[in-house]
Amino acid sequence: MTETLPTAAPEATGRFDLGGRSLRGHAARGVIINGAFTTGITFLGFLRGFIVAALLTPSQFGVWGILATALSTIQSLKASGVGDKYIQQDEEDQELAFQKAFTLELIVNVVLVGVLALLVVLLAFIYGQHQLLAPGFALMLVLPAMTLQAPIWILYRRLRFARQRTLQAIEPVTGFVVTIALAATGAGFWSLVIGAVAGAWAAALVILVAPPYPLRLRFDRATARKYIGFSAPLLIASVSGIIIAQSSLIVTEAAVGLAAAGAAALAASVSILTNRVDEIITATLYPAVCAVRDKTDLLYESFVKSNRLALMWAMPFGLGLTLFAPDLVRFALGEKWHAAAGLLQVFGAIAAFGHLGFNWAAYFRARGDTTPLAVAAAVTAVVFVALLFPLTYSDGLEGLAISITVAVAAGFAVRVWYLARLFPGRPLGRLALRALAPAVPAIGVVLLARLIESGPRSAATAAVEIVAYLIVFVAATWALERDLIREAVGYVRGGRTPVPAGA
């Protein structure tokens, strides 16, 4: 790592230096270049999960699933607004603004260390698995490292995407190498725990080599009140997500067993992957969205184009997983993961269709209206919990799949309703049909091949179908979206000619 954090940067338009580009061009360039870069890193984490799953037993992976859910619970609480509010603010003294935000972040993380410790003890008691205690307490070491990564916010606010993403890549790359190496030596779920801690601290130490501003404690009551007002609805949304994640594992383990909880955790890794990729694109856009939050036309243009770009990968990935999950289990993971195939198919479909309006939260956060996010998350959690208990106890993993599907659909309906209020007279139906169109011929080719194939299914047959599916999807996408793709390529090359948002 030769690049360090910049020690200074001019604030064009009061926020950032665009390097001579328009805000639209700079943001689009950031979405494409850094989004593609970090998408590769995210898929590395996805690959890590499946490699480790092949090396561990379902029960061992179930232990990690419980611990990973506990850590993601804390990370969800931690992400409830401090960094986002810092990006949104426009204080005159940006060094002081960062130090006040860093102080609040430190306070939050100190509290969360205690919350994680209590959560680990509680989960060990609920599951009757005392082996959760030692690795759970070890995961507490991730939180101080995450606190020390706060200077990355400054790059984020300045739209310094390349440096930001390069530094953030340290954590997953280090975690991948350490985890796979330890898993191969028989370290079991400890390989994942040590990998997570090693990755977080490696990133923190590099980021701290040359921070833009000194890390000083500056507590201000007025600032704290502003952050609380912004973050309270986001906290509700985070708690709703926590309820979904924890209840799904607790109920699945109680109703079906620890191995089934491992299957649920493996399937949930699909959501983790897609959420991470979503965060890449949304995070790239968010500072720019904040800068034009009062210009509805520009907001809508960025919303439509970012969704169309994201759906170009989300649809083929999600629907492909739904089509080929049984093959993935049979030929890659092994029959010990047979129970996970159905859940993987459900999560694949959710990943595809759930991307419609995926980055809506950024637009409401930028406008300082975080209540819709809390409402959508709360509705999803209430519906999920109401269905989870009866359906999982009666139908096992199939009941869990039904509960997740209905709950996500309910939350999506709330999302659509709020977006219709933000962008009146601009329905999302056309965006949905446009995103789904390339999938129709691609899926048709696969289904036709399966109708005419004979004999036992082989890995070679599955591989040929996957290649055909991707080729048709890419060709259909180019036919429908070539104008947008050319515009995107133009931004990467430094072009300035935009295509109308509805093109």
The percent of residues in helical segments reads: over 70%
Calculate Rg over CA atoms: 23 Å
Q: Give the topology string: H per helix, E per strand.
A: HHHHHHHHHHHHHHHHHHHH
Low-pLDDT parts are: 1-14, 495-503
Shape call: globular
- The average pLDDT score comes to 79
Distance between the termini: 41 Å
Got a strand count? 0
Q: Based on helices, strands and strand pairing, what is the structural class?
A: mainly alpha
Indicate the proportion of strand residues.
under 5%
What is the makeup of the main sheet? none
Number of helices: 20
Give your account of this protein's structure:
This protein is mostly helical and 503 residues long. The protein is built from 20 helices and no strands. It has helices spanning 23-55, 58-78, 82-88, 94-127, 133-138, 142-148, 152-157, 161-168, 170-184, 190-207, 221-255, 258-291, 296-333, 340-353, 360-366, 371-395, 397-422, 429-436, 439-452, 459-493.
